[in-house]
Backbone:
């Protein structure tokens, strides 16, 4: 145990500090929906889409049933079909590549920039020269920080690819002062409860600058129907529940406050630890990540597994995002990749560890975690 401090319990995530102060607001919103008897695509959904478009600096916002569905719908709207190839990274949540396969396409993996864990544009350029049949690129804005989008978009535009941003963890994040919701042809978000703006269930969002794409996405989420019972194409059933929309409207009003708390917690870790310790390095946002929103605060350690056990033994929660790169997953073995193909992704999978960062952490909690890191001996 560090110093003489008493053992504390610091979970990886605790939603009570954000939910308890707005409990009555949420219950009032739920009651309003129950009384309205409109539970699917009700007025709250339309209002939420308008509010999210304004918040995200996007021309159009279309909600759907989950972040995973958002990625799949974006691929459908980009006309990605069987036999096409879509480039993404192997160091991300499964849904990125899973959506590509669901659309009938083949994932093409490129390695990450070790500093940000996001797509390395140089690796994308190499893949562009080597691989044929690419229809789109799906950069991931991991952990709440933007990918290096200018070179990625430039590569895509020169080759006629669509750009689909996976911003599931990064609502409110910015790249060189621009919202990640306005960087791709379509950008996708998740409202999973652990996200910075989380529903009390599943939910997703797509943003786009193109009105025709927005109209098409709105149809694709209801079985490809623009007019009820008439279907121009085959879509899916992925509508946001009105109850979730009402809850998200309440929570959206508080998102900037919660994001600021996450950023303050990240700064405080930095004040306590500097650049890190002999066995733990802290995240260092790139200059172009002008508003990192810290959905996760991810440190790296060559002794990651021992560090995690040490923190657990002292009451601190943590999580590994992600322990096995996608090219090593059993279901993707037929893609032909081997261990060693993406060294930066594989090293990250061995070293990354997410620490508590949620709004509501006390300074005492942060100091306790920092002291543990300082006393970890590897």
Residues:
């Amino acid at each position: 145990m560090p110093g003489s401090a008493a053992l504390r319990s610091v979970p990886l995530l605790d939603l009570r500090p954000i939910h308890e102060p707005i409990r009555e607001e949420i219950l009032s919103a739920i009651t309003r929906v129950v009384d309205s008897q409109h539970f699917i695509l009700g007025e709250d959904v339309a209002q939420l889409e308008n509010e999210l478009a304004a918040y995200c600096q996007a021309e159009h916002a279309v909600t759907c049933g989950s972040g995973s569905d958002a990625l799949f719908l974006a691929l459908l709207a980009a006309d990605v079909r069987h036999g096409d190839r879509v480039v993404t990274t192997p160091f991300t949540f499964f849904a990125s590549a899973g959506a590509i396969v669901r659309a009938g396409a083949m994932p093409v993996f490129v390695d990450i920039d070790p500093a940000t864990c996001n797509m390395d544009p140089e690796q994308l350029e190499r893949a562009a020269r080597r691989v044929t049949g690419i229809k789109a690129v799906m950069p991931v804005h991991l952990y709440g920080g933007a990918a290096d989008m200018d070179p990625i978009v430039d590569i895509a535009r020169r080759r006629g690819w669509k750009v689909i941003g996976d911003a599931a963890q990064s609502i409110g994040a910015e790249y060189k002062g621009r919202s990640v919701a306005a960087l791709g042809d379509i950008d996708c978000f998740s409202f999973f409860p652990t996200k910075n703006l989380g529903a009390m269930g599943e939910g997703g969002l797509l943003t786009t600058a193109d009105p025709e794409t927005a109209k098409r996405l709105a149809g694709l989420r209801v079985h490809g129907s623009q007019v009820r019972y008439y279907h121009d194409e085959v879509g899916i059933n992925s509508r946001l529940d009105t109850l979730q929309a009402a809850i998200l409207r309440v929570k959206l009003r508080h998102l900037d406050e919660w994001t600021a708390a996450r950023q303050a917690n990240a700064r405080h870790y930095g004040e306590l630890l500097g650049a890190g310790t002999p066995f733990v390095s802290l995240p260092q946002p790139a200059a172009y990540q002008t508003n990192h929103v810290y959905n996760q605060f991810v440190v790296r350690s060559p002794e990651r597994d021992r560090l995690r056990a040490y923190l657990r033994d002292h009451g601190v929660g943590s999580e590994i995002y992600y322990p096995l790169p996608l090219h090593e997953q059993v279901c993707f073995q037929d893609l032909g990749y081997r261990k060693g193909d993406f060294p930066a992704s594989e090293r990250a999978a061995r070293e990354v560890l997410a620490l508590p960062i949620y709004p509501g952490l006390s300074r005492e909690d942060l100091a306790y975690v920092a002291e543990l890191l300082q006393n970890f001996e590897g």
The chain is about 40% helix and 15% strand. The longest strand covers residues 60-64. Residues 275 and 282 are 6 Å apart (CA to CA).
